[in-house]
Amino acid sequence: MSGDNKIWIFDTTLRDGEQALRASLSQKQKIQLAHAIARLKVDVMEVGFPVSSPGDFDSVQRIAREVKGPVICGLARAVAADIEACGEALKDAERRRIHTFIATSPLHLQYKLRKTLAQASEQAVAAIKLASRYTDDIEFSCEDAGRTPIDDLCWIIERAINAGATTINIPDTVGYTIPNEFAAIISTLRNKVPNIDKARLSVHCHNDLGLAVANSISAIQAGARQIECTVNGIGERAGNCSLEEVAMIINTRKDIFAPLYTDIKTTEIYRSSHLVSQICNMPIQPNKAIVGENAFAHSSGIHQDGVLKAQNTYEIMAPEQVGIRQNELNLTSRSGRHVIQHRLAELGYTKDDYDLEAVYKSFVALADQKGRVFDYDLEALVFFENMQEQNDYYALEFLSSSTHTGHIASATVGLRCGDQLFTEAATGNGPVEAAFSAIARISKLQIKMVDFNLQAKGSGEDALGQVDIIAEHEGRRFHGAGLATDIVRSSVLAYVHVLNMIQRAQTIDAHKHAQKHTREHAREKNTLKIAAGDQQ
Ligand code: KIV
Ligand code: ZN
């Protein structure tokens, strides 16, 4: 199977990527990202670890029901409860895959699992057989394969394939290997595992030494046919292999890689990258390959001159190939709905991605404030419009703040909580602190600020200010974001967003608790009935 020319792209942004975030995503955010990743035309999407929490189970289930196109995959340790939860969560997917794993390196076997390789293999075989009751698409990973002796790897993989694994994944879990070493692992597996042709060989590289992309590329040259990666390379520690980089390497260097190809729709790269960055609160470094702000910017005079004469003097790919489009439209408050819709379509947004009325209303308000509205403003409006959930419990009604050099600042906040309006005033060292104190008095929730980050969206003094907050409440972390021309307002909107995230989490918990109670009650009634039957 490793002989064909298509390189399968297995996206794990919503699993390996999500597990590394400082605040977990809401279900709505995960669905939004899942749709964006599906539009990239990835082959497989790993969207969660269903047994890890009821929230993860629910979002995997919803994505499995809703997102069409790629194979939807869930992660499971090689234990029955994990496989069962995964199989159950994925059951409504058009196409589903269970990805099960166990560690195989001496270090992990001895200290983490306290098992022998033979015991791990037995456990893996049992898990694969159980998974085959739910699907015939089963992936098996040897965790820490990069540090597993090659003969051990060959031995366990042969058994996993015999048990029914259809994809064999080789993770460099700690990002330790270097390209020729990793390629040699793949070549040896292909030469030494007798049944290797019955499975697709996959690689999953971490970036601890900055080699995740290089290792993945070397692996496909050695015969691997699936690359596991994430948008912007987000993931545990230094992250995973970056999807956009491998896709563009294979696409740009056809002279080397053809006939190998991926099905990635490269024009979706820029948009999905920015969405992941926004939603996951993971800024993109400006010099990041493919999607960084400077990736296509030419600063030196010599380079600018060269590009004007012939684009390929200093550009090996065109920005349009990754979905960056130049804007010739001047968007002002006089621009109509159809112009906004047209520009958003050029930026890659379909009508289903946003509510035109809502975005247009915010656009006009912003254009009145700023004069000209740029693409990044428009994209930010769509992003923030989508962030609003229906029936938000908390809403900012009004805000006034004042600050004078050398004096304490003060703020008055009007906050709608359900159908009631509360007003509070407070003082602080600055207007943001004062406004936060006023909100805290109204909500009465114990919230600890873990991180506060302010960034300008756009350039010049009329740039929008985006505030991202990470806040802790009862041991859980929540991410809130706010956008406005006035940074005190952005901060307050981010705080209100956090309050809504907490409120939603509490509602879900209460619902889960009630369901559990009903199930227990039903079980109890059933037991009583059976006991009564026994006595008759
Ligand atoms: O890095 C790793 O080993 C993993 C496995 C679960 C595939 O993420
Ligand atoms: Zn990983």
UniProtKB/TrEMBL annotation:
Q: Which PROSITE patterns match?
A: AIPM_HOMOCIT_SYNTH_1, AIPM_HOMOCIT_SYNTH_2, PYR_CT
Q: Which GO terms describe its cellular component?
A: cytosol
- Tell me the route in metabolism or biology where this protein functions: Amino-acid biosynthesis; L-leucine biosynthesis; L-leucine from 3-methyl-2-oxobutanoate: step 1/4
Q: Where is this region: Disordered?
A: 511-536
Q: Per the database record, which ranges form the Pyruvate carboxyltransferase domain?
A: 7-270
- EC numbers on record: 2.3.3.13
State the Pfam families in the record.
Answer: HCS_D2 (PF22617), HMGL-like (PF00682), LeuA_dimer (PF08502)
Per its Swiss-Prot or TrEMBL entry, what cofactor is needed?
Mn(2+)
Q: Name any one GO molecular function.
A: manganese ion binding
Alphabetized InterPro entries for the sequence: 2-IPM_HCS-like (IPR050073), 2-isopropylmalate_synth_dimer (IPR013709), AIPM/Hcit_synth_CS (IPR002034), Aldolase_TIM (IPR013785), LeuA/HCS_post-cat (IPR054691), LeuA_allosteric_dom_sf (IPR036230), LeuA_bact_synth (IPR005671), PYR_CT (IPR000891)
Keywords attached to this Swiss-Prot or TrEMBL record, sorted alphabetically, are: Amino-acid biosynthesis, Branched-chain amino acid biosynthesis, Cytoplasm, Leucine biosynthesis, Manganese, Metal-binding, Transferase
Q: Which GO terms describe its biological process?
A: L-leucine biosynthetic process
Record field: catalytic activity: 3-methyl-2-oxobutanoate + acetyl-CoA + H2O = (2S)-2-isopropylmalate + CoA + H(+)
Location of the region described as Regulatory domain in the Swiss-Prot/TrEMBL record? 395-536
Tell me which residues bind Mn(2+).
16, 204, 206, 240
Q: How does it assemble?
A: Homodimer.
For this chain, the family text in UniProt reads: Belongs to the alpha-IPM synthase/homocitrate synthase family. LeuA type 1 subfamily.
Q: What does this protein do?
A: Catalyzes the condensation of the acetyl group of acetyl-CoA with 3-methyl-2-oxobutanoate (2-ketoisovalerate) to form 3-carboxy-3-hydroxy-4-methylpentanoate (2-isopropylmalate).
Kindly provide the name given to this protein in its UniProt entry.
2-isopropylmalate synthase
